[in-house]
Amino acid sequence: MGEEEQRNGNGRKEGRKSKYAVACSIVGSIISILMGYDTGVMSGAMLFIKDDLKTNDTQVQVLAGILNVCALVGSLTAGRVSDWVGRRRTISFAAWIFFAGSVLMGLAPNFATLLAGRCVAGVGVGYALMIAPVYAAEIASAESRGALSSLPDICISFGILLGYVANYLLAKLPLVYGWRAMLGLGALPSAALAIGVFAMPESPRWLVMQGRDEESLAVLRRECNTAGEAEARLAEIRTAAGLADDSTPGEPAPNSSGKGVWKELFLHPTPPVRRIVVAALGVHFFNHLTGIEAVLLYSPRIFKATGIATRNEVLAATIGVGVTKTVFILVAILLVDRIGRRRLYLSSLAGIIASLAFLGLGLTVVEHSAPHHAAQWAVVLAITTVFTFVASFSIGVGPVTWAYSSEVFPLRLRAQGSSVAVAINRLINAAVSMTFVSLYKAMTIGGAFFVFAGLSVLAAAFFYLFCPETQGRPLEEIEEVFSRGWRARSSSAEVELPGSTVPDGNGKADGNQST
After folding, report:
1. DSSP states of 467-492 as a string?
2. Distance of CA 27 to CAs 230, 288, 412, Å?
3. pTM recorded for the entire structure
4. CA distances from 310 to 58, 302, 306, 381 (A)
5. Dihedral of CA 241/151/303/318: which sign?
6. Which CATH number goes with the domain that contains 57?
7. What is the pLDDT of residue 497?
8. Containing structural domain, residue 144
């Protein structure tokens, strides 16, 4: 671990990045690879399922969207489960659910069994999407938290890419075996992760909530540069958990089992908690209204609409989409702790809006052209903007959504608050994936992307108005950021260099330094 240090928002020195925390976050985020693989592999497998099982468009839409409907069950229960049994065991539980779903899909003799397996896998998706970023955020230090809590998104993208590659390679198998091999392959890494996850530590913040301070301190000592820094962080966590300095050692925090959290979130929230709920749920609400799921899940149909004819060409093009998504999320991980959440998210949305508008234009021209006589510029524009859209989403909106929502909730509310945010995410995802085919048939495929462009403008307005910057803030201080009012930091604050004095959300000078 390097000796270089930098100051956090309170002027206290902390080590830059803990290799131990990075390693733990990577292992904890592997569950997201499984979720991404399931999404990516299904986009190609649906082409073969339709031929083998003779499914119609309605069944295809249901198959695509049922994963997200069932993910609601997983996400809404995952928060309470993780408060009860811990973050680590929840990751293992999610992996076993994925294992069961993959086996069912891989052995499915008919559409009903395939749908059941997809639904079981969906419950695992709900657990994975909630627990991976929460674990990463809770084990990371303030200056590396944005990158580490974005790791689940890069893992999702890597999983999607693996799914596309599996489609391409396994497409050569006989029809009856090909799609089953694609879907069943996810069972092997699921079982390995379910067992291997116990090699990593429990979240130190969850351990404090359970009154296991000594175990928490042992984890923090491995993360921090010095014993003093570990003890200082433990004291902050205890305070955030509602434990007084003179409380009995080993005493669990109030509501350590997660009881009463929903009441505090939705029935009687304090003004800061109310703002946090709006911000965290809002970023997930708008995440899929940009149309990302439509592009990822139905990219083969989009490429076919542009004139890419053969199945191998379509699958090869989708691999290009997966590579683009993965590369640009890696760029986002390098930037999110340097330039902040707000600038990255809003810049990303600018690229999304432009890409969707030009994608809609290109597809509209192609659709209204005579077969095989579409203007070459329109075909090139449509194909290019699929990639620029994926790149724009992946460099900001995708990773920032998960990083932001996992860090803004106070410790006592984080797991269950994040579970509700994930439920919103899956609900909108399901709505988009289950209606996209019907939408573009009703108003043309180009018109559908114009709609997504308009919704992305609303997303930009929401984030600008309701989501203040959290860059460099310890988790235990973020609630204080939301206590300043609805107004997000002004644009002048966003262009300040790290370490400089910036105005707070009400325009007043804030002496805290960002990292």
Report:
1. ----TT--GGGHHHHHTT-SPPPPHH
2. 22, 26, 24
3. 0.71
4. 24, 13, 12, 20
5. negative
6. 1.20.1250.20
7. 34
8. 24-205+260-477
